[in-house]
Each structure stands twice: as structure tokens, then as C-alpha cells.
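ok trying again, last paste got cut off:
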Amino acid sequence: MAENLTIARPYAQAAYECAKENNCVSSWQTMLEAMADACRDETFLSFLKNAASPESAAETFCSLLSQGQDNLLNEYGENFISILSENGRFEAVPEIYAEFIRLKEADEKVVEATVTSARALSAADLDAIKGRIEQKYGCTAKIRTVIDPSLIGGAVLKIGDEVIDASVKTSLENLSLTLK
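nice, full thing came through this time. structure:
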């Protein structure tokens, strides 16, 4: 999937720039989400890849999206689908959507943090963590929680590439290494 992410970046960048330029970021987000959902279906993806021509694959995809929500697909979306079809890039659409969201959140100054703890944290604890992150990074924080009983206690906070490990498990491992 790393290859798809490399492929996805320029498409997502172009889509996001077009969406911002035309003040339609939310409609692009909705459209890309529907496209990503469709492209996660292996049968549909195989159908598109085996279409008689890139034009017929694009036409089929546009037809599918037009049957759903009203105004889901605009002219930019149709052009985007045509370009994806011409270049055989339908398998990268889920990554394009994820990268589009990342670009949107970066532009809106939203940072995603993952808090892994041994037990469920209280709402007050999560609010305190969120507040500290927002204060430190000057942005809005989205917190995702993960429970990992092997940590014994404490927590691990991951924000982008930064990891703050305050778990009991890691402290014990470090102590063990020190005593050897």
C-alpha cells in the first residue's frame, strides 16, 4: 500500500487545490469518500480494470456515483474519474481520499493523536490530553483511543511521527536494561 500512497499524493493534492479554489471542499470530500468506498469493493474494482476501455470504465464509475446522492458528482469529479481511468489508478482511490482528508485537516490546523492506554481513560483525562495538545501545537486535536492491556499502566501518545511513551511496560523494560 505504500506504493498506492506515493501514487495518491499528487492526485489528492490536485483534488484538494481544485476543491479549495472552487470553494467546494466538503462536496469533494463527500465525492471522494463515495469513490473510495466503491473502490474498496474488489469485484467492482476488477470490473473497472477489465472494462473494454478507460472511457467505458470512467463512464460506468460516473454512472454509479450519479445514481446515489443528488449532486454527488460534479464536472470536476467526472474529469477526475476520467484521469484516474486513463492512468489505471482506481486502486489508489482509498489512499487519495485519506490523503485529501490529511491535507484538509492540515489546512484547518487539525492534528490527530492516538492515545494507547492499559484501560479506558475518563472523559476528563481525554479532555486534559486534548487541551495540552491543542495548547502545544496551536491547533484543534482529534483524539483516537486504543486499549492495550499489555502496557500495564500509563499511556503512549502518538502525534504524527512523535511518540511519548509513559507506559509502565516501557519503564519496566528500561529499568531491566539498566540493571543488566
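cool. Residues 109-179 form one domain. The chain has two domains: 2-106, 109-179.
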